[in-house]
Amino acid sequence: MIKRLLALVFLSAVFWPSLLARAEDVPSPDGDSYYYLEVPPGGLAEFFRWHPLRIPLVSHHRGGPAPGFAENSIEAMQNALRYGPGLMEVDVAQLADGTLILMHDNTLDRTTTGTGDVADTSWSDVQSLTLVDAEGKQTGHKVPRLSDALRWATGRAILTLDIKVGTDFSAVVREIETAGATDYAVAITYSLEQALEYQEIAPDMMMTVTMRNTEELAAVEASELNKDTIVAWTGTRLTSKDFYQMLHNRGWRVIVGTLGNPAYSIDSQIRQAGQDSRYLDILNLGADIIATDRFWAVQSQILNPNIFVFTRSKLYR
């Protein structure tokens, strides 16, 4: 039965999730339940407002790929929810005909049965392709449009959208609004300037804003950003407990990235040491959300059924 959650060495970056999946088996989850996040209408900002009793969450890099489940696929995200609730970080790209799809690379070659540049391809060509997993095996799953992912996410998980270069942010916002998914979508920004540009287009949209040190924090505070729409991204290196507390004092939840190049990422260090409990240390340091390539490992540490209230719901189709 489904449980519905009521709760407010150098390697290329392109292959990070794939290499982790190859290096480590992903265990099967206990039972056949799915863990869904529900956000009350208009409640996303409140959901992300920091509270001392906050519930720790996982952000699934590229939608939580695993053997048999390709990155940036709806099927991978649904599978990941068998391990626990959370955010789904996905990549949004735009095709030549304007269609918005989930796709990380600039080409179709690595993750699909097709070839060629994404920006030069139309939806009529992409929709016939099949996604492949990290081992290059065909999954039988299709490339999702952003609209498909937004409809899937509503009532299930929050999408954090990594909007690729050349993709029209205004078009992304229109799709979110058309899908009625404003409570389930967060924009990822990579600079204060980009955050301000996004805010001009979508003033009320939640967004991640980079604050890795006190200088970047001060710049955000001095800016005209809406402080109620911020989730603090603090990068892929740990900092001090005091700094995380400064962010909490401003009401912002903190995302810490353990993902990254397998040669030196925190995920890789923890895996090699065989000490998954170190994810709890990161939460105790001040992280509220862990962005990871090892979602199953983090969920095994943080999932505590005593924290959550569940009701049963119909099986996902």
From TrEMBL:
InterPro entries tied to this protein: GP_PDE_dom, PLC-like_Pdiesterase_TIM-brl
Is Acetylation a UniProt keyword of this protein?
Answer: no
Q: Which domain of life is it from?
A: Bacteria
Q: Which Gene3D superfamilies match?
A: Phosphatidylinositol (PI) phosphodiesterase
Q: Which Pfam families match?
A: GDPD
KW Signal (keyword) present: yes
GP-PDE domain ranges (all copies): 56-302
- CDD domains, alphabetized: GDPD_AtGDE_like (cd08566)
Renumbered to this chain, the signal peptide range is: 1-23
The UniProt keywords, alphabetically, are:
Signal
**What name does the UniProt record give this protein?**
Glycerophosphodiester phosphodiesterase family protein
